[in-house]
Fold this protein.
Amino acid sequence: MDATLSQRAATGMYRSTPLRALWQHAPYFHDGSAATVAEVVDHYESCLDLGLSASQRVDLIEYLKSL
């Protein structure tokens, strides 16, 4: 985890990415370890074995970017 991201915040704490205008709030995860929404989806696909098809993955990414 990169503590630099928490130190940059006004509160000195990690910041959760809001869902509203999600695409404008990179990097993602509390430690900034995902640079894109696609990396977030890939992370959850591998950790939770979501079983998304390629087209479902694209649809999910586009949906998240539309929020």
Notes: Residues 19 and 67 are 7 Å apart (CA to CA). The mean pLDDT is 83.
